[in-house]
């Protein structure tokens, strides 16, 4: 792509199209070629050429020391018609901070650094306090377990439906009964397999087993077939 004289509106428009999908005129890092092209402008690009303006402001922001360290040769790429001279736009120079005219300027009449540090520390403490309070209000994770019981009857004449009905009458804070089924054992005898979910801190498994075994007219024994943390 050819870019004509950058001191003309047409040249700036051509450069705007050229730099639209680029960060720098050559490669992926700023170089002396960018400075060479910058010197070709008679004035900064306007809002009508946003890509050229973006590139121009970026390259112009480099300090003299940074410009000297840029790699490459100070020469515009092929296809650029860059003309320097007295009417070229000079590279904007980074001005050094001005020295205070009077030592009295160092006096802060409205507050000291110590006061600013104290205020910052106060704000930080308030934020930490708010975070701690928010965290403390977060509900704690409740530890639960899934327990599968094998409830065995005395014989094949035991009313298994009545057995299950009795087992489900057991109510404890933190206990929820789940699905159940009858599983064959031997000689026509079936056992009741029943699932439960318990909150570990509220329900003692040993106590729950004892409560099931209290239905001694139906229950011969109780085993834990499976125990899993949730």
TrEMBL record:
<dbReference type="Pfam" id="PF10587">
    <property type="entry name" value="EF-1_beta_acid"/>
</dbReference>
<dbReference type="InterPro" id="IPR001326">
    <property type="entry name" value="Transl_elong_EF1B_B/D_CS"/>
</dbReference>
<dbReference type="GO" id="GO:0005853">
    <property type="term" value="C:eukaryotic translation elongation factor 1 complex"/>
</dbReference>
<feature type="compositionally biased region" description="Acidic residues">
    <location>
        <begin position="102"/>
        <end position="118"/>
    </location>
</feature>
<dbReference type="GO" id="GO:0005829">
    <property type="term" value="C:cytosol"/>
</dbReference>
<protein>
    <recommendedName>
        <fullName>Elongation factor 1-beta</fullName>
    </recommendedName>
</protein>
<dbReference type="GO" id="GO:0003746">
    <property type="term" value="F:translation elongation factor activity"/>
</dbReference>
<dbReference type="InterPro" id="IPR036219">
    <property type="entry name" value="eEF-1beta-like_sf"/>
</dbReference>
<dbReference type="InterPro" id="IPR014717">
    <property type="entry name" value="Transl_elong_EF1B/ribsomal_bS6"/>
</dbReference>
<dbReference type="InterPro" id="IPR018940">
    <property type="entry name" value="EF-1_beta_acid_region_euk"/>
</dbReference>
<comment type="similarity">
    <text>Belongs to the EF-1-beta/EF-1-delta family.</text>
</comment>
<feature type="domain" description="Elongation factor 1 beta central acidic region eukaryote">
    <location>
        <begin position="109"/>
        <end position="135"/>
    </location>
</feature>
<dbReference type="Pfam" id="PF00736">
    <property type="entry name" value="EF1_GNE"/>
</dbReference>
<dbReference type="InterPro" id="IPR049720">
    <property type="entry name" value="EF1B_bsu/dsu"/>
</dbReference>
<keyword id="KW-0251">Elongation factor</keyword>
<dbReference type="InterPro" id="IPR036282">
    <property type="entry name" value="Glutathione-S-Trfase_C_sf"/>
</dbReference>
<feature type="domain" description="Translation elongation factor EF1B beta/delta subunit guanine nucleotide exchange">
    <location>
        <begin position="144"/>
        <end position="230"/>
    </location>
</feature>
<keyword id="KW-0648">Protein biosynthesis</keyword>
<dbReference type="GO" id="GO:0005085">
    <property type="term" value="F:guanyl-nucleotide exchange factor activity"/>
</dbReference>
<feature type="region of interest" description="Disordered">
    <location>
        <begin position="84"/>
        <end position="118"/>
    </location>
</feature>
<dbReference type="InterPro" id="IPR014038">
    <property type="entry name" value="EF1B_bsu/dsu_GNE"/>
</dbReference>
């Amino acid at each position: 792509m050819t870019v004509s004289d950058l001191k003309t509106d047409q040249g700036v428009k051509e450069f705007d199209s050229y730099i639209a999908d680029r960060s720098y005129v050559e490669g992926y890092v700023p170089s002396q070629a960018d400075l060479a092209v910058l010197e070709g402008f008679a004035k900064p690009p306007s809002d009508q050429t946003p890509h050229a303006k973006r590139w121009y402001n970026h390259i112009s922001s480099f300090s003299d020391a940074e410009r000297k360290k840029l790699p490459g040769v100070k020469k515009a790429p092929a296809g650029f018609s860059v003309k320097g001279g007295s009417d070229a736009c000079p590279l904007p120079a980074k001005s050094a901070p001005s020295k205070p005219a009077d030592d009295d300027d160092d006096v802060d009449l409205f507050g000291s650094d110590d006061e600013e540090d104290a205020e910052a520390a106060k704000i930080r403490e308030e934020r930490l306090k708010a975070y701690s309070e928010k965290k403390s209000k977060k509900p704690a994770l409740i530890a639960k377990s899934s327990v599968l019981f094998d409830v065995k009857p005395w014989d094949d004449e035991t009313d298994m439906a009545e057995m299950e009905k009795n087992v489900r009458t057991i109510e404890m804070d933190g206990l929820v009964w789940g699905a159940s089924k009858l599983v064959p054992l031997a000689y026509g005898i079936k056992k009741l397999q029943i699932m439960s979910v318990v909150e570990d801190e509220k329900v003692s498994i040993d106590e729950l087993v004892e409560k099931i075994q209290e239905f001694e007219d139906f229950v011969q024994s109780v085993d834990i077939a499976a125990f899993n943390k949730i």
